[in-house]
Amino acid sequence: MAKHETPLLDQLESGPWPSFVTDLKEQAATKPECWDILGQLELSYKDRITHWKHGGIVGVFGYGGGIVGRYSDVPEKFPGVEHFHTVRVAQPSGMYYTTKNLRDLMDLWEKYGSGVTNIHGSTGDLIFLGTRTENLEPLFWDLTHDLGQDLGGSGSNLRTPSACLGESRCEWSLYDAQEACHQLTMMYQDEIHRPAFPYKFKFKFSGCPNDCVAAVARSDFSVIGTWKDNIRIDQAAVKKYINNEAGYPANGGAHKGGPWDGKFDIQAEVLDLCPTRCMWMEGDELKINDAECTRCMHCINVMPRALRPGVQKGASILIGAKAPILDGAQFSTLIIPFVEVSAEDDFQGLVDVIEKVWDWWMEVGKNRERVGETMQRVGLPTFLRVMEIDPLPQHVREPRSNPYIFWREEEVPGGWERDIVEFRKRHAA
């Protein structure tokens, strides 16, 4: 395949950062179709439109998801990307790979595809970028039979669940995020591989409120580790932070060079940055009104040797995040503040909520409507009634502006009929 002139793409190599253009040119030495990738992209830059077309559904026998079809609309110019399908490979929980596993995966992709990968994109899957239709079945056979791995999710199904490192490496993890992710991935294989939902649905598991997988921004169902009781305080360590003693750098020393360079200032760096202002000093003791704490983790991150999460560990469940496809991006909404999360009961507390959401969404959701958009369309009060959850003040986004109140019959003691009869009696008198 011929090398293409790419003056627009070449500009991307001129900056100080590594460029995918350079990587693709190097890959073209052994995979000539990469020249056609660059050539088609250069043409898209000139024409200001994409030159990938949908081209129909493509996949492997028995699966409706896992492979994203890509076809060029100018195959006569770039025959190397006439077919250029994306294969999603389910990642291990927490994205732990052995070096052998990675080498085997790369050897497989060198054999059947372009050798171009994306590890890891926002989907969570390991992405193989670019192969022909006739390679899909043999690639799938070798992947599943020789490597013991499976395809991830694509289409209107459950997307491949993903989790942070959890208890394996993080001291803040408040439940076993990796085990929860693994078990639910195994439980819902059919929902991953055979699309049956109104649109895509994503689980993401973060072991603590730092939310290192950005579940609150990107997943339909976020499981965020939290605690139910009070933050644990080591007052002696608080004093050492305030006195800037050796071995007690705030935030691991990350504040050096920041807006408070120099000595640690607990007022500026912790108390004033608490979103609910639930912290204060009484003399040389730190006080916390835990009833107002939103578990943001900021104070714990800044003073990790003085503050720790509580001992009653579990998770919060938030529902409804999405990217800006229809009505704009939105974060997920806190629905269940605390639920116990345990492998001992096969994570039944999570499963019950998941399946209740699915039953409702599959009934009332429109085609290509994320669950967050369905919630937005019908209103949060309706969703909370479906989930049998009592409203909380935190569910209120803004004060009510509609002057009319519409009561449901069951909300009025005695019902409407009695009230009407009483009104008529008074009016007649």
Automatic annotation (TrEMBL):
Q: Which residues form the Nitrite/Sulfite reductase ferredoxin-like domain?
A: 82-140
InterPro entries on file? DsrA (IPR011806), NiRdtase/SiRdtase_haem-b_fer (IPR005117), Nit/Sulf_reduc_fer-like_dom_sf (IPR036136), NO2/SO3_Rdtase_4Fe4S_dom (IPR006067), NO2/SO3_Rdtase_4Fe4S_prot (IPR045169), NO2/SO3_Rdtase_4Fe4S_sf (IPR045854)
| Enzyme Commission numbers on file | 1.8.99.5
Keywords of the record, alphabetical order, are: 4Fe-4S, Iron, Iron-sulfur, Metal-binding, Oxidoreductase
A biological process (GO) of this protein is:
sulfate assimilation
GO cellular component, as recorded: sulfite reductase complex (NADPH)
What is its EC class? oxidoreductase
Q: Which domain of life is it from?
A: Bacteria
Domain Nitrite/sulphite reductase 4Fe-4S, chain residue ranges per copy: 154-388
Q: Where is the signal peptide?
A: none
Query: Is 4Fe-4S one of the keywords UniProt gives this record?
Result: yes
Gene Ontology MF terms: 4 iron, 4 sulfur cluster binding; dissimilatory sulfite reductase (NADH) activity; heme binding; metal ion binding; sulfite reductase (ferredoxin) activity; sulfite reductase activity
Listed NCBIfam families = dsrA
Q: What is this protein called?
A: Dissimilatory-type sulfite reductase subunit alpha
Q: What is the lineage of its organism?
A: Bacteria, Pseudomonadati, Thermodesulfobacteriota, Desulfobulbia, Desulfobulbales
